[in-house]
Design goal:
With 469 residues, the chain is α/β, with parallel strands linked by helices. It has helices spanning 44-47, 60-65, 83-96, 108-111, 120-135, 151-154, 163-179, 192-201, 212-236, 258-281, 286-291, 303-307, 351-364, 392-410, 453-468; strands spanning 8-9, 37-41, 101-105, 139-145, 185-190, 241-247, 250-253, 313-317, 321-326, 332-334, 371-376, 415-421, 440-443, 448-451. The protein is globular and about 55 Å long. It binds 5-hydroxymethyl-3,4-dihydroxypiperidine. Residues 43, 46, 191, 247, 317, 375, 421, 428, 437 line the site of 5-hydroxymethyl-3,4-dihydroxypiperidine.
């Protein structure tokens, strides 16, 4: 049933247990500062469903997930969390938890037709959603591109075609003119590393191409799209913040040998510097092309100045570290560590990596903008038992990562907020619905939402913080 708030299960645990809870940050944590924003994040294709409603066009993820063998269990985003119909109840849920900000993304194929004309019904959906969030006093962090490229653009080469960057600037223009005033912060792209490397470099994500040269060219056009959109967003919506979101990776050496140290460095070059150097230094790192010889993209005069347009914030997404050794040639290979804590994704839990990277970036980039942790969280095989979900590992994960954020703040990094990934379980790309990242459980058969214990504790902390201020 659409917008049925009664479909939200009430938690079975008391949020006011007398003992010290396993989540609340230490009393000297910077997270107690009331201007440190705490929110939750989602993305359009992962939650909306309604893929062919109200004039939405197909995206590359519709095509990819419909291709046998590409997504676990053949799952697709056709229904997902049915958020397109349940958005009001989902906003109530967010507000009920006391979360202060919501990071969402706009589906490009929902708001613009193939001729570049607005799709009013799609735009109205986001106007209603953002309007309601504002009414509830929730800050809005809007990503323009969280991977759902219109299929008609992919049919013309997608991010391998320079023209896609200009089409993105047109899309940014349309959306920011329409939604001006209801967005606190615009992010152009989410995780260009994933779009370029997983989408065009190894084919694990849509559109499923696998060629190293494609990856670097796609990245260049993605970053160019970002750089072209920034001045457009500034002109149309001057009061909002503008930035980009990068997923960063920590690489650690498997031994003290110089070769392994170099391997770990190169891991971070391709994961972090590939994106952050052009954005913040106006140049690609030369070492990237030592690692991947012969993959230099075609870069036109002026592109790097466009890409390095000043931004108001940098969004950082962090999940795990990768332990590597030298591959004996000019690269690295992963050496998975034994006996370490891992999540349902198999990713190692390593909060120190987040702190170390943030502190490192402050040293590397003298113009490092203010940072928001725009995603952090973990997947676990959560089950509803007696009406509740006791996601113990997630609670501990969040506490440790928030402590790492606090340590980075204390080391002088300007970090202004943190968004949990994710508000609710959702379509986890090539892993479909099996992997559950939400602080709210979703029963995909009934669309019933159940608040997990982690969400209760985050909510309790936010309440306490509010009472103290
Ligand atoms: O679900 C994704 C999200 O879309 C982008 N960042 C990583 C998350 C977990 O894999």
């Amino acid at each position: 049933m659409a917008n049925d708030a009664s479909a939200v299960a009430t938690p079975s645990h008391s949020a006011d247990a007398p003992h010290v809870d396993p989540f609340t940050p230490s009393s000297d944590s910077s997270l107690w500062r009331k201007n440190f924003l705490l929110g939750a994040a989602t993305a359009s294709y992962q939650i909306e469903g309604a893929v062919d409603e109200d004039g939405r066009l197909p995206s590359i993820w519709d095509t990819f997930s419909a291709t046998p063998g590409k997504v676990l269990a053949g799952d697709t985003g056709t229904v997902a969390c049915d958020h397109y119909h349940r958005w009001e109840a989902d906003v109530d849920l967010l507000a009920g938890l006391g979360l202060e900000a919501y990071r969402l993304s706009i589906a490009w194929p929902r708001v613009m037709d193939a001729a570049g004309q607005p799709n009013r019904k799609g735009l109205d959906f986001y106007k209603r959603l953002l309007g309601r969030l504002k009414e509830m006093g929730i800050q809005t962090y809007v990503t323009l591109y969280h991977w759902d490229l219109p299929q008609h653009l992919e049919d013309r080469g997608g991010w391998l075609n320079r023209d896609t960057a200009y089409r993105f600037a047109d899309y940014a223009d349309l959306v920011s003119r329409e939604l001006t005033g209801s967005v606190d912060a615009w992010a152009t792209l989410n995780e260009p590393w994933c779009s370029a490397y997983l989408g065009y470099g190894n084919g694990h994500h849509a559109p499923g191409l696998a060629n190293g040269r494609f990856a670097t060219q796609a990245m260049h056009h993605l970053l160019l799209a970002h750089g072209l959109a920034i001045p457009v967003l500034r002109a149309n919506d001057p009061a909002s913040q503008k930035g980009i979101v990068a997923n960063i990776g920590r690489g650690t050496p498997n031994s003290d040998s110089a070769a392994d140290q170099r391997a770990a460095h190169l891991f971070e070059v391709q994961h972090n510097a590939w994106i952050l150097d052009p954005l913040l230094k106006g140049a690609y790192p030369n070492e990237l092309f030592d690692l991947w010889p012969g993959t230099e993209p075609l870069v036109l005069d002026g592109d790097l100045q466009t890409i390095a347009a000043p931004i108001d914030f940098l969004g950082i997404n962090y999940y795990f570290r990768t332990n590597v050794e030298s591959d004996g040639a000019h690269g690295f290979r992963e050496v998975p560590l034994e006996g370490v804590e891992r999540t349902q994704m198999g990713w190692e839990v390593h909060p120190d990596g987040l702190r170390d990277l943030l502190v490192g970036f402050k040293g590397t980039y003298r113009n490092l903008p203010p940072i928001y942790i725009t995603e952090n969280g973990m997947a676990s095989d959560d089950k509803v038992v007696d009406g509740g979900v006791d996601d113990t590992q997630r609670i501990s994960f969040l506490k440790r990562h928030l402590a790492a954020v606090d340590q980075a703040i204390k080391a002088g990094v300007d970090i202004r907020g943190y968004f949990l990934w994710s508000l609710m379980d959702n379509f986890e790309w090539a892993f479909g619905y099996e992997r559950r990242f939400g602080i709210v459980h979703v029963d995909y058969g009934t669309q019933k939402r159940t608040i997990k214990r982690s969400a209760e504790l985050v909510s309790k902390f936010l309440k306490e913080r509010k009472e103290k201020s």
